[in-house]
Amino acid sequence: MQKILINLSTLEKQELLSLLQSKNVLTTKEAALYLSISVPTLRKLRRNKKIASYQPSRKVFYKREDLDDWILNSKQSDESAIQSRVSGYFLNSKF
To answer: In this protein, which residues make up the domain named Helix-turn-helix (predicted)?
Structure first.
């Protein structure tokens, strides 16, 4: 699917993303495209229960709302937050 995007014009990409944003339920390929990640990465997230999915039959579906929530809740920690956690770990651990 991402190979297809390489060959699309900017206008076509915008139209495709607009179409995905108008859908409430996405297929695996559509969800990967919506998140700008590969299909194997999306499958790994699903397998590790990091992202919600629905499988009423053989085909897997994703709610766009769940994908948006995942994006908003998967922020990266800044350096000070990481240092704070590391300091807390060493203060609380017994060597």
So the answer is: 25-72
Topology of the domain comprising 2-92: Multidrug-efflux Transporter Regulator; Chain: A; Domain 2 (1.10.1660)
Model-level pTM?
Answer: 0.66
Here the tokens at position 55 are 């499988």
Burial class (CB within 10 angstroms; exposed 0-12, middle 13-18, buried 19+) of 11? exposed
- Is the Cβ–Cβ distance between 51 and 65 less than 8 Å? no
3 state DSSP class of 51: coil
Domain boundaries, given as residue ranges, for the chain: 2-92
Whether the Cβ atoms of residue 63 and residue 25 lie closer than 8 Å to each other: yes
